[in-house]
Write the structure tokens for this entry.
Amino acid sequence: MSYSSLIAESQVILGLESQDRIEATRLLGQTLVEAGRVSDLEGFLADVAARERQMATGLPGGIGIPHCRSAHVSAPSLAFGRSERGIDWGAQDGPAHLIFLIAAPEGGGEDHLAILAKLARKLMRAEFKNGLRTAADAATVVKLVDREVVNA
């Protein structure tokens, strides 16, 4: 599979300030609707919520990676949000400041797992996380994700 164009500048929210993960996921999901990657926001959010009920997707170090396979997704996609205040994503060490919403087509199980695995490995690297934390604009985030996750 080609990982080209998993993420675009329009799928990045650097000032993601939400009261909770449900609202944050809705805001990130809306960027995927606007990009033509998700056809039905409510249906997609229901699929993400069902996945979140199985197990919280907060990782240590201030990371949230909500994800799902959904019939409402047309192409493997990422949306990224950065929260200064942090949003509770269920990690034991505190709120998430870096959030990646991973959306995969219903039949794209292997693609979904490959994206998730690559992203999780990169998020263990301090340089990658620091780059995301300090990115001045959406273009910088897209270049970083393309370099470290998409084209790695």
Summary: The beta strands are 12-13, 58-59, 63-64, 67-70, 77-87, 96-105. The two ends are 14 Å apart (CA to CA). The helical segments are 21-34, 41-54, 109-122, 126-134, 138-150.
